[in-house]
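Before the break, one more example. Copy the sequence into your notebook; we will annotate it together after we see the structure.
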Amino acid sequence: MYTGGIMVVGSVEDALDKDEGALVTAGGMGIGKQLYAGINVVAKGTQFSESPTTGTLVTEGGLGVIQLLMLHAACVACTTHVM
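Here is what the structure looks like once it is written out:
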């Protein structure tokens, strides 16, 4: 569906898994600019990360965390940039 402008989904249904919510897609979703999530972003993938370009959540520009970051696994940090 291409609307050519702003599309508003009036439902306020919460999503607890991939098959629920106000907007559900069977395929992927491409976003050209910015995504704003009002409360939570949950990624329930199972792909392990073996490089900076693999894993359930991959960012190309970096990750900014304002308050707290919790990790429940090994943390490996590699950088070529020293601040």
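The CA atoms of residues 63 and 69 lie 11 Å apart. The radius of gyration is 16 Å. Try to locate both features in your own notes.
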